[in-house]
Design goal:
The complex is a heterodimer of chains A (about 280) and B (about 280).
Chain A: H1 2-29, H2 33-61, H3 69-90, H4 95-104, H5 106-112, H6 117-122, H7 131-147, H8 154-181, H9 192-195, H10 197-202, H11 212-221, H12 224-227, H13 229-235, H14 252-273
Chain B: H1 2-12, H2 16-33, H3 38-63, H4 79-95, H5 103-110, H6 113-118, H7 123-154, H8 162-184, H9 193-207, H10 219-225, H11 235-241, H12 247-277
Helix pairs in contact in B: 1-2, 2-7, 3-4, 3-7, 4-7, 7-8, 8-11, 8-12
The chains are: A mainly alpha (about 280), B mainly alpha (about 280).
C-alpha cells in the first residue's frame, strides 16, 4: 500500500518536473517575439503549401482513386495532427536532436541529474512554434469531418480521438527507436526518416494507391494502416482491405502504445549500452 | 589548401585569367566537399527515392491508372510525363537546394563573412562559384544515381532536347542561387533570418512546381506565378525536359530564366552593398 502511494507520489513528482521543463523552454522561446512568430508561421506554411498543392490540383482530376477532397482531408488532417502533436511531445527523441546531444556530451550530464532520463529527454525539445501547424492540421481535419458526409456519433468521435492518441504513441515509438539507434551509430539513423516522416506522408493518402507490398509492409510489419487508414475507412462505411473485419479499425488505440512499449524496451537496452563520447 | 594557394597566386598577378582560375578552384573545392560523406549520401538517396515512389503513387492514382496503363492526358500531361516529373524533382533537390540553404546567412551571423571580405575577389561571384561547385557535386552524388534509378525502375524518360535542357538546368541553378542568396542577405538586417528563410523555401516549393506540376494548378494560379521568378527555378527545366516547349517557345523560356537570374543577381548586389555597409562584427 505504502509502496503504491510512493509510486503515485513519484509519478506526480515526475509530471511536475516535466511541466517545469516545458515552462522553462516556453519562456526562453518567448524572448524573441518576432522571430518566434515568423518561425511559427513558416512551420505551418510548409503544411499549408503541401496540402494546398494537392487541393488545387484535385479538381482537374475529379478525385484520388475514388476519394473526394473532403475524404482525403480526413486522412491527411488526422495523420498531420497526430504527427505534429507527437513532435511536440517526443521531439527530444528525434535522432538529430539526440545525436547532437550525444556528440556534444550534454547527454552525459542528463545521466548525472537526479531525475528520470526519459522525463528529461521528453522535456528537452518542446518547440512552441509547432502550435500553429497543429492548429492548421486540426483545421484540415475539421474540414474533412464536415465535407466527407460522415454522420458523427459519439462512437465515431471516440474512434477519431483514439486514432489520434494511437498515432502519437506510434510515431513517438518510432522517434524513440531512431533516438536509441544513435547510441550505436550516428550515421545510419537517416534511414529512420523513411518510416517516420515517410510514414507520415504515406498514411496521409488512401493506402490502396500504393503497391500491394508497400501497403502490406505498413499494415502488418509496421501497423501504421491500423492507426489512420482503417479508422477512416470504417468511418466512411467502407470495407477494410484483406478481408479484415470492421472492428479491426478499433485497434488503433492499442497498436500505437504497443509500438511505443517495444521502443521503450529498446531504449532501456540502449541506455545501458551507452558509454558517452568522452568529450 | 596548397591547391588554393597555388591557384591563387596567378590572380595576385591581376589578370582576368587568374581571376577565372581562382573561381575554378573555388568551384572545384565546393564540388569535392560533396563527396566527404558517402554513407550519408547513400541514405539520402534511399530516402529521396522512397518519397519519390510515394509521390508517383499519388500522381498515378490521380490519373486513375496503374503503372502499366498510359491513361488519357491531363492538361497536356500523360501519366508517363508525371512519373518523369517526379524523377526530376527528386534529382534536383540537392543541386538546387530545394529544401533551403542557409550557408551565407550563417557566415553573416557568425561574423565569418569578414574572412570573405579579406579575399581578393568580390563576394557575390565567390559564393556563386562555391555554390556552383556544390550544386555540381550534389548532382553527381545524388542526382545522377537518382536519374538511373528512375529510368530503370519507373521508365522515366531522358530529356527530349538535351542541349536546351542543359542550358535550362544551369539557368535554373543560377536563378535559384540568386534567390537563395537574396533571402540569406536578410541576415544583415535581422537575427530572424532563419524564419524568413523557412517562409521563402515554403513559397518556392509551391511556386517552382516542386510540390505539384504547375500545369495542373487552376489557370489563375499559373497566371499569378508567371509574374514571379519561381517557375524559372524548376518548372522551366521540366517543360523543356518533357519536350512540352520546343523551338521558339523553348528559347523564350530560357530567355525568361536568364532575365529573372540577372534581375535577382542585381538585387543581390544591391542588398550586399547595403548590408555590408551596416555590418558590424564583434571583434576578438
Amino acid at each position: 500500500m505504502g509502496r503504491g502511494r510512493n509510486r503515485l507520489g513519484s509519478a506526480g513528482h515526475h509530471l511536475r518536473l516535466y511541466f517545469l521543463l516545458l515552462r522553462a523552454q516556453a519562456r526562453s522561446q518567448g524572448v524573441y517575439r518576432t522571430s518566434f512568430a515568423l518561425d511559427a508561421l513558416a512551420t505551418a506554411l510548409i503544411t499549408a503549401t503541401e496540402f494546398a498543392a494537392f487541393a488545387l490540383v484535385l479538381p482537374r482530376f475529379g478525385g484520388l482513386g475514388g476519394w473526394t477532397l473532403g475524404e482525403v482531408a480526413l486522412l491527411y488532417g488526422l495523420a498531420e495532427l497526430g504527427f505534429v502533436l507527437m513532435d511536440l511531445l517526443f521531439g527530444g527523441f528525434d535522432a538529430p536532436n539526440l545525436s547532437a546531444q550525444i556528440r556534444s556530451g550534454s547527454f552525459s550530464t542528463l545521466l548525472l541529474r537526479p531525475a528520470p532520463l526519459p522525463v528529461q529527454v521528453l522535456g528537452s525539445d518542446f518547440a512552441l512554434r509547432r502550435f500553429p501547424r497543429a492548429l492548421l492540421a486540426a483545421g484540415i481535419l475539421a474540414y474533412g469531418m464536415t465535407q466527407s458526409g460522415v454522420v458523427w456519433t459519439a462512437w465515431g468521435l471516440g474512434l477519431l480521438a483514439g486514432s489520434i492518441l494511437g498515432l502519437i504513441a506510434f510515431f513517438g515509438g518510432l522517434f524513440v527507436v531512431g533516438g536509441t539507434l544513435t547510441f550505436w551509430t550516428v550515421e545510419s539513423v537517416e534511414a529512420m526518416n523513411v518510416v517516420t516522416y515517410g510514414g507520415r506522408s504515406l498514411i496521409s493518402y488512401p493506402m490502396d494507391i500504393y503497391g500491394e507490398w508497400l501497403r502490406r509492409a505498413f499494415t502488418y510489419l509496421l501497423p501504421a494502416a491500423f492507426l489512420s487508414y482503417f479508422p477512416v475507412l470504417h468511418l466512411l462505411g467502407r470495407p477494410l482491405p484483406d478481408g479484415l473485419p470492421g472492428w479491426a479499425a478499433y485497434l488503433a488505440p492499442m497498436a500505437g502504445p504497443l509500438v511505443l512499449g517495444a521502443a521503450a524496451l529498446l531504449w532501456r537496452v540502449g541506455v545501458r549500452h551507452y558509454q558517452g563520447t568522452g568529450s | 589548401m596548397n591547391t588554393v594557394r597555388a591557384a591563387a597566386s596567378p590572380s595576385s598577378r591581376g589578370g582576368p585569367a587568374g581571376t577565372a582560375a581562382l573561381y575554378a578552384v573555388t568551384a572545384r573545392l565546393g564540388f569535392r566537399r560533396q563527396f566527404a560523406y558517402p554513407q550519408a549520401a547513400l541514405w539520402g538517396l534511399i530516402t529521396n527515392f522512397f518519397f519519390g515512389a510515394l509521390r508517383i503513387a499519388v500522381l498515378l492514382a490521380l490519373f486513375g491508372t496503374r503503372p502499366t496503363g498510359p491513361g488519357t492526358p491531363v492538361a497536356g500531361w500523360t501519366a508517363s510525363d508525371a512519373v518523369t516529373y517526379v524523377g526530376l524533382t527528386q534529382i534536383f533537390i540537392g543541386a538546387f537546394s530545394l529544401f533551403g540553404w542557409t550557408d551565407f546567412m550563417r557566415a553573416v551571423h557568425r561574423g565569418e563573412v569578414v574572412t570573405d571580405l579579406l579575399r581578393p575577389t568580390p563576394l557575390l561571384p565567390f559564393w556563386a562559384a562555391q555554390d556552383a561547385g556544390r550544386a555540381a557535386g550534389q548532382f553527381v552524388v545524388r542526382g545522377l544515381p537518382m536519374l538511373v534509378l528512375f529510368v530503370l525502375v519507373w521508365a522515366a524518360r531522358l530529356p527530349a532536347q538535351p542541349l536546351l535542357t542543359l542550358f535550362s538546368v544551369v539557368l535554373a541553378w543560377a536563378c535559384g542561387f540568386a534567390f537563395r542568396f537574396l533571402v540569406n542577405c536578410a541576415a544583415f538586417w535581422s537575427p530572424d533570418a532563419v524564419g524568413i528563410g523557412r517562409f521563402a523555401w515554403a513559397v518556392q516549393g509551391l511556386g517552382c512546381g516542386f510540390l505539384m506540376p504547375l500545369a495542373f494548378f487552376p489557370a489563375w494560379v499559373g497566371a499569378a506565378l508567371a509574374w514571379t521568378p519561381f517557375p524559372a527555378m524548376l518548372n522551366t527545366v521540366v517543360t523543356l525536359w518533357l519536350g512540352q516547349k520546343t523551338g521558339a517557345a523553348a528559347w523564350a523560356a530560357l530567355a525568361g530564366q536568364l532575365g529573372w537570374t540577372l534581375g535577382l543577381l542585381a538585387l543581390c548586389a544591391l542588398a550586399l552593398a547595403r548590408g555590408l555597409r551596416r555590418l558590424e562584427v564583434a571583434g576578438g
